[in-house]
């Protein structure tokens, strides 16, 4: 039998040429050993991947450390780097004594797996960062979150520099968080920092340039914002905090000397993170603006402090229908005059801010109109005309029910004239516990072009109370069967508080309504209680 020398140096019978071709055509390296552990065969891929291993090599002491250790330890697998490639080997027993090692080059597979893990890590980081940034509705909270979230994933130090809110402000405030620090630190940046750190001045000014890694940072320019002992930074990356209106500031990501620099994927990730932080800043700024407007609106629409009226004691009660701004469509007003007071209590159609805006319009109209007219019936007609004369009256489709009364005090008590515009009848509570509704009637104000209004008169003796209320009281529904609180329960609550001051009566009614609701949602509620003090004298001169 003749033999043929193959490129790998292994002698095989001539009729084994086909087997050699098959072995050399494999994409993985194949090594076989005899019972002593010497290599008896290598294929072409083995020669390429493991040139140190040839026929006759003692595998347990070969130059391929990971393979030699696996053989010496009688292991069936190894996974290691060799000549810049990632190799993965598996051992199989042969039918005759000896082994075959099958070794694959998994460099590309390993790189793809690493890339996939890195991408999943980046996605998880952005998801977590976006969630936490989205929960921050205040500017300082966003800046704190932007710095703490970036460390240590993106950098060893993160510094947020918001753009100064005042253009002439000479210094930029910064917030820094460093890996290992217990909490973020704040400070002021001088002009030298913004003028010498490449891209920083542009970012603070709103220039939407691409973030650029910077390798030549001078420690003197960054020393004020670096923690003690940090040393010269290895690399600094400046990212604008982008928002819809431009740049809201800049984010400096600083890595230690010796840590890998920012590669393309790092820059892309940092840019995306900074954009999310910038969007969160914009949201926080919008929230702050809306909160300011809400506070201004709330201050103008909440029921006012009641004035002091000689001979009269008054108290008000107000509950908005679950609105976070605590404003709604129910209101009351009291305007003193020389003989007593003019009072109003109303319920604008709707809830929340929309109803509160019309409430403000009604109250402002009353404040103006009562300067020229203080008779309730005439005044309610003027208010109705004023609401219809408003520019947006036709498209607004809103109206208000209203009680508008005047109180004239004298030595024998007080006389009240009450004009009505479709509102629930007020209640007269006498000192002996008698509760009597005072029918007024009338049509809602601002609802019909030809509306009719009515007026009622009532005398209040010392110790009597007059209660005006909105339908949020009587229409409050209980949680069990949805039954309304109703007028009968209201009268019972008032009777139980007879003889007590107006504030105590208001508290008693609110407590009864709360007990009835048992935590359920309710409509807007407003109440105004007016009581005549004992011993009233005619001391109200013109």
TrEMBL record:
<keyword id="KW-0378">Hydrolase</keyword>
<dbReference type="Pfam" id="PF07228">
    <property type="entry name" value="SpoIIE"/>
</dbReference>
<dbReference type="InterPro" id="IPR001932">
    <property type="entry name" value="PPM-type_phosphatase-like_dom"/>
</dbReference>
<dbReference type="InterPro" id="IPR036457">
    <property type="entry name" value="PPM-type-like_dom_sf"/>
</dbReference>
<dbReference type="InterPro" id="IPR052016">
    <property type="entry name" value="Bact_Sigma-Reg"/>
</dbReference>
<dbReference type="InterPro" id="IPR029016">
    <property type="entry name" value="GAF-like_dom_sf"/>
</dbReference>
<feature type="domain" description="PPM-type phosphatase">
    <location>
        <begin position="309"/>
        <end position="532"/>
    </location>
</feature>
<protein>
    <submittedName>
        <fullName>Serine phosphatase RsbU (Regulator of sigma subunit)</fullName>
    </submittedName>
</protein>
